[in-house]
């Protein structure tokens, strides 16, 4: 099933008796979209509408009506429903938190991902940068989280994190934050021995 995004153009074609007026409704996507009869194809009615922003819906029926004057035929459902996702995924709860300080030089870096009732996260679209380095290949992904465990200690200082993710309809979300790695104080200050 193709998932339509914001601004997608939906073309509707209805075949019926020549010389009528035709219109379609598509749930909360479009109302009373006029279909024009194709001049060289009597009885074929065509029209388009754009998917509006702010709508996420599955299996939206497209209902066509044909009429002549004040006589309207029975509504007919077009043979395909529409699935629409115009809202980007939500990226929340980045950790370590924004502007947080840690003495752990290899902290787990994670973020919660959700696409609500949308089309779902496109796992292949996810990109993660830590301290300016693309670490996407090392990220572990679950249905709700992404996790990066640095294989080597991070340098002390500010560590920027950037995440980009899209849903299956192509809606993009970005999250960026930074935390600071502070050098820890050594527990053992010195070691001496008098052995041989």
List keywords for this structure.
7-stranded antiparallel sheet; 19 strands; 196 residues; mainly beta; 48% strand; rod-shaped; single chain; 5-stranded mixed sheet
What this model shows, in words?
The protein is mainly beta and 196 residues long. Helix content is 0%, strand content 48%. The chain is built from no helices and 19 strands. The chain has strands spanning 3-4, 9-15, 21-26, 30-37, 44-50, 56-60, 63-68, 71-72, 76-77, 82-85, 90-95, 101-102, 109-114, 127-130, 133-134, 140-141, 145-148, 157-166, 172-181. Strands 2, 3, 4, 5, 7, 8 and 9 form a 7-stranded antiparallel beta sheet that branches. A 5-stranded mixed beta sheet has the order 12-19-18-14-15, with no helix packed on it. It has a 4-stranded antiparallel beta sheet with strand order 11-13-17-16, with no helix packed on it. It is rod-shaped and about 110 Å long. The chain starts with a strand and ends in a 15-residue tail after the last strand. The mean pLDDT is 91.
- Succession of helices and strands: EEEEEEEEEEEEEEEEEEE
**Could you say which overall geometry the principal axes of the C-alpha atoms support?**
rod-shaped
**N-end to C-end Cα span:** 77 Å
Q: Give the quaternary arrangement of the chains.
A: single chain
Would you identify the regions where 5 or more consecutive residues have pLDDT less than 50? none
**Secondary structure tally: strands:** 19
Relative strand content: over 45%
Q: Provide the helix percentage.
A: under 10%
């Amino acid at each position: 099933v193709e998932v339509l995004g914001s601004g997608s153009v939906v073309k509707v074609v209805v075949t019926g008796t020549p010389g009528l007026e035709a219109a379609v409704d598509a749930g909360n996507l479009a109302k009373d979209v006029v279909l024009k009869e194709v001049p060289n194809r009597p009885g074929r009615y065509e029209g388009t509408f754009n998917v509006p922003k702010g709508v996420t819906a599955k299996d939206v029926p497209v209902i066509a009506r044909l009429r002549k004057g004040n006589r309207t035929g029975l509504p007919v459902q077009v043979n395909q429903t529409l699935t629409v996702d115009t809202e980007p995924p939500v990226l929340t709860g980045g950790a370590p938190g924004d502007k947080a300080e840690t003495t752990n030089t290899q902290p787990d870096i994670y973020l919660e991902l959700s696409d609500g009732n949308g089309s779902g996260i496109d796992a292949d679209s996810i990109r993660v940068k830590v301290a300016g380095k693309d670490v996407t290949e090392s990220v572990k992904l679950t249905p709700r989280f992404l996790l990066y465990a640095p294989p080597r200690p991070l340098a002390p200082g500010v560590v920027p994190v950037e995440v980009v993710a899209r849903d299956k309809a192509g809606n993009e979300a970005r999250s960026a934050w930074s935390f600071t790695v502070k050098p820890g104080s050594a527990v053992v200050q010195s070691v001496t021995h008098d052995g041989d």
